[in-house]
Specification:
With 349 residues, the protein is mainly beta. Helices cover 8% and strands 46% of the residues. It has one helix at residues 2-29, and strands spanning 53-55, 61-65, 71-76, 79-84, 90-93, 99-106, 113-120, 126-134, 139-142, 152-155, 161-168, 173-179, 186-190, 196-198, 206-211, 218-222, 227-230, 244-250, 256-262, 265-272, 282-291, 295-297, 303-307, 312-315, 321-323, 327-332, 335-340, 343-348. The protein is globular and about 55 Å long. InterPro entries: 6-blade_b-propeller_TolB-like.
């Protein structure tokens, strides 16, 4: 009998504890009159510090920025300067006698600088040579094939210069546009094996070039017939508009941005894609016409509109706006950089 009572007591104890707990939950935590003390956190008030703030000399020109904003580049009489924006450490890229920098461009998805150099030999012959620069390791490498043979392109004379570079990171193909005043442009295609061939296009005046990122296709602006063309395809990219067509850029998803307007004033932007129908294209009608040079298309497809009269930059789709002082230099995926006196300053959007 005593054993039975003890068993009943030990059985009831956990039941009582569970019922007590449920009662407390019902009366306290689930009571409609329970009040909570909360504090509103205004995350919009938190602003990230400007990432870029570096000093440059008065004669600095030809500015560039890596796709992450980690590095700023510029030219002066002493070569190319690279500044690490996190610590303002400066590196210098110099060129030997007889070698001059013709053009350079940052890759769209890596902190790598592609440099086109012009070499003039004592016998008067002139060649193009190409190098890549990795700022993280401060290393410069000459573009060469598997047998370490340097790639060189013979030019007719030293009056030619590289005026545009179009890079395709996924296909490892590079197009360089070479010009001399009074002559038709020459375009060279450099493949992954560091081999160059001249692109034989129909005779026309080429204003701008770009390259698709996922496909090995050259896009160019044929100013002679007011067409945006794709090398290797018979038909041009048709927008259905009669105004002047301007090739603005190609993003990482192979969207081709075509400005439409007159006298370098853009009123509409077409976002064409060769794998989509005309009905699937995006079309942006600008609220007011914009100078072509004030439109920036980034690798990720952001469209920035600069208004130098108000010192503002607006991201077209989101409407986000940044203000700046001095002169805008470039817009990139993370924001903008501008020059105010002898300082290059960045703002994140």
């Amino acid at each position: 009998m005593r054993g039975l009572k003890r068993l009943l007591i030990w059985t009831l104890i956990p039941v009582i504890i569970e019922l007590t707990g449920l009662l407390l939950v019902d009366k306290i935590y689930l009571n409609d009159e329970t009040t909570f003390s909360t504090t509103k956190v205004d995350v919009s008030a938190k602003t990230q510090a400007d990432k870029i703030n570096v000093k440059v000399p008065d004669d600095a020109n030809n500015f560039g920025i890596s796709y992450t904003g980690n590095y700023i580049s510029y030219c002066d009489d002493d070569g190319i300067k690279i500044i690490n924006t996190s610590n303002n450490k400066k590196e210098k890229i110099t060129f030997d006698d007889g070698i001059e920098m013709s053009a350079y461009k940052w890759l769209a998805d890596r902190d790598i600088l592609f440099i086109a150099e012009k070499i003039i030999y004592d016998d008067g012959s002139t060649y193009l040579r190409f190098e890549s620069y990795n700022p993280k390791d401060n290393e410069k490498s000459v573009l060469s094939d598997d047998n370490r043979k340097e790639l060189k392109i013979l030019l007719n004379d030293d009056g030619y210069n590289v005026t545009q570079i179009a890079l395709s990171s996924l296909t490892n193909v590079t197009y360089v546009k070479v010009d001399k005043e009074g002559y038709n442009s020459k375009i060279y295609r450099i493949n992954v094996m560091a081999q160059a061939e001249r692109v034989r296009y129909p005779i026309c005046n080429i204003s701008s070039i770009a390259a698709e990122n996922k496909e090995d296709r050259l896009i160019y602006q044929d100013s002679s017939s007011n067409r945006i063309r794709v090398y290797g395809l018979r038909n041009p990219i048709a927008t259905g508009e009669n105004a002047i067509h301007y090739l603005l850029n190609v993003d990482n998803e192979d969207n081709i941005y075509i400005g439409n307007g007159e006298n370098n004033i853009i009123s509409k932007i077409f976002v064409a894609n060769l794998k989509k129908t005309r009905q699937q294209w995006k079309i942006y009608t600008l609220s007011q016409p914009v100078q072509k040079s004030n439109i920036y298309i980034t690798a990720s497809g952001k469209v920035y509109i600069n208004d130098p009269s108000k010192n503002t930059v607006t991201e077209l789709v989101s409407g986000k706006q940044l203000t700046y002082t001095g002169n805008l230099i470039k817009a990139y995926d993370e924001g903008i950089i501008y020059r105010d006196g002898n300082k290059i300053i960045g703002k994140l959007i």
